[in-house]
Amino acid sequence: MPMLFFRIAVGIFVCVMFSSSIAAADAPVLQHANTYTGNETVAGWFMSEKLDGIRGYWDGKHLLTRKGQAVHAPEWFTKPLPPFALDGELWRKRNDFNFVQNTVLDGVPSEDWKEITYNIFEVPVAPGDFPARLDKARAWFDAHPGEHIRIIDQITCTGPDHLDAFVAEIESSGGEGVIIKNPALPFHSGRSPHILKVKTFSDMEGTVIAHNPGNGQFKEMVGSLTLRLENGIEFKLGSGFTIPDRKSPPPIGSVVTFKYQGFTKNGIPRFASFLHVRKD
Q1: Domains plus CATH for the chain?
Q2: C-alpha 200: how far from its chain's center?
Q3: Mean pLDDT of 38-49
Q4: Is 196 exposed, middle or buried (0-12, 13-18, 19+ CB in 10 A)?
Q5: Contact indicator for 88, 79 with CB cutoff of 8 Å
Q6: For a pLDDT cut of 70, what percent of the chain falls above it?
Q7: For the chain, what is the mean pLDDT?
Q8: Which pLDDT tens digit goes with each residue over 81-132?
Q9: Of the candidates 64, 124, 225, 267, which lies 20 to 30 Å from 273 by C-alpha distance?
């Protein structure tokens, strides 16, 4: 009997280690945009709207979030997808992040998936420049169409004035911002000066480490959250919350996204305003 228990324990250990190695191997290798400074030469680059949804990385077999978490999409949703990698955004419409997040990260796919589209902005690892990589996806979906599949339109930028006008158009319509990308380069992962996000306001994430009580109209509610940023800086975030947010604030330990405009001399985000909780 002791030998039997030993064998079972070893078997469980091996299974756990094998599963862990699969999870690590499945973590997506992504491109990440730097922030546009206005000093870059962007004429001839491609620009497109930056969609505020849940990033969806298709590895040829599985749909994953930016951190490698499995997305439990319905079979009909993934059926048209190719045997090669895609990168895109799971999205419904502007200013609708919470609906998308709740739908996409649900362990059991619901009927709400019928509202979700997959918006492709890259074909990782494919050879050639950016237009050639997108053409590979277009050729696949010409032969394997899906009503919920989109390849994000790319506009050739003529220069800074064209970019500024496009950003103003997107933001005035409720969009988050713009991505601009050098189309001449082969695919590469990691953060790059050749892929830039352009917004009037920047956004960032922080971890909730405390709830601070409110005063006046917010008495008996949360007045602000204390956040810890990735670089260790802590500050209080007190704006952008609805009354329901203040009555039921993001729990301690959760990660929230906020927008801001620059930093103080002490590294505190200026004009910070809450956007949403991130679960991916």
Answers
A1: 32-198 (3.30.470.30), 202-278 (2.40.50.140)
A2: 18
A3: 96
A4: buried
A5: no
A6: 90
A7: 89
A8: 999 999 999 999 998 999 999 999 999 999 999 999 999 999 998 999 999 9
A9: 64
CA-wise closest residue to 211 among 179, 173, 253:
253
pLDDT of residue 277: 94
Query: Among all chains, which residue has been given the structure tokens 């019928």?
Result: 114
Active site residue 50: yes
The C-alpha atoms of residue 157 and residue 195 are separated, in whole angstroms, by 13
Residue labelled with tokens 């971890």: 207
> What is the distance between the alpha carbons of residues 53 and 89, in angstroms, rounded to a whole number?
6
Q: Give me the DSSP letters along 9-70.
A: HHHHHHHHHHHHHHHHHHS---EEEEE--S-S--TT-EEEEE--SEEEEE-SS-EE-TTSPB
pTM score of the predicted model: 0.77
Residue 238, sorted as left (phi over 0), alpha (psi -120 to 50) or beta, turns out to be: alpha
Q: Which of 50, 181, 199, 259 is catalytic?
A: 50
